[in-house]
Amino acid sequence: MDAHQRDLYLYERLNARVLGVSMDDVTTNKYFAKSFWLEFPIISNTLAWMGAAYGAYSDKRPFAPDGSPIRFGRLTVVIDKKGTVRYVKTGSPNNQEILGVLLQLEREFRGK
Amino acid sequence: MKRKFKPGLTLRFAFPLLVMTGLLLGGCATLGPEKPKDVVPTDRGTVIFLEKYEFKRPPAGWAMLKNLEGGDFELGFLTMERGAFPSQTTFIFDNQPFGSSRDLDQRAKQYCTRFLFNTGMYPEIKKQEKIEVIGLPALAIYLEGENPNRTEKAKSKVYLIQKGNRIISFVCTQWRPLNGIYDQAAFGQFEEFVKSFKFLKKSFYENFEEELKKLGI
User: Fold this and answer.
1) Please, what are the domains in chain B?
2) What is the rounded distance in angstroms from the CA atom of residue B144 to the CA atom of residue B126?
3) Which fold has domain A2-105?
4) Do A9 and B98 touch (CB under 8 A)?
């Protein structure tokens, strides 16, 4: 998240927007965003339907022994202006790769 | 009994064997391009790291820390002080220090709230000053902290440097037992390292911004 915030000025120049999605509740996300000085929205998706829709399943067991859900992992998705998913990557985000994808999409959009 | 020696037959086997050996050895030598060395010494008394940075290495006794696959920092050095309470001094170059602001003062605030946060110690800012480092506008931050539970203390010097639209950093931290004395020579070697540091290539972000300019963005 820190890295996305650091690169936000570049995302904005490419007319891209960042949206974080978390299974945490709104209050937790508010504190999280504040502690990292995040300026982009974080969706509190406690029922995790977004994670399911984009296939953010973790390779761990669906539930921990204490019953808490751990079935979603980190996933980065880039969606273009038409709503088509153009990039999906599990694990920690690779910002340089993401910026490369956004630049490519901008070139495609401009026909260059 | 005298053994019969048939030179023709021996050569018939030996020649293909020699050819095969030659081919195999030749094959070994041409298995892809040779991987360039991470650190290459120069005749200027410096080293070149990954063809990206040039700097003066600290003297013997400092081990190099390399992070080639991404992580908290890219390169640094570490030295250990042995004895009853082993402690270490490290210094690093980090091109993505904690925080996100591109304003030096604001970044310093962000940085210091998280610096050494997982050590159970809350380092106090002793001094902060605006200076120039390697010809670039920078903030020098001096921090010190103690952890009585672990009977240790630490002293750090942080340079946050404005390089184009990004902020990079050089950080030196020395750990000592609570009653120990800090070794100023190690901080001197850190200063030498910083002073000698040169960027040999444009960073990913500098190249990226040039691409954006080409597109008129």
Assistant:
1) 48-177 (3.40.1000)
2) 7
3) Glutaredoxin (3.40.30)
4) no
**Cα distance from A5 to chain B (closest Cα, Å)?**
6
Interchain CB distance below 8 Å, A96 and B204: yes
Which pTM does this prediction carry?
Answer: 0.82
pLDDT tens digits, residue range B103-149? 999 999 999 999 998 888 889 999 999 999 999 999 999 999 999 99
Question: Which of B100, B205, B215 is closest, CB to CB, to A112?
Answer: B215
Structure tokens at A76: 């980065």
The residue among B117, B208, B213 with the most chain A CBs within 10 A of its CB, best to mutate, is: B208
CA separation for the pair B92, B190 (Å, rounded):
9
- ipTM > 0.90? no
Select the residue of A2, A8, A103 nearest B211 (Cβ to Cβ): A103
Q: How many CB pairs under 8 A join A and B?
A: 37
Is B191 within 8 Å of B166 (Cβ atoms)? no
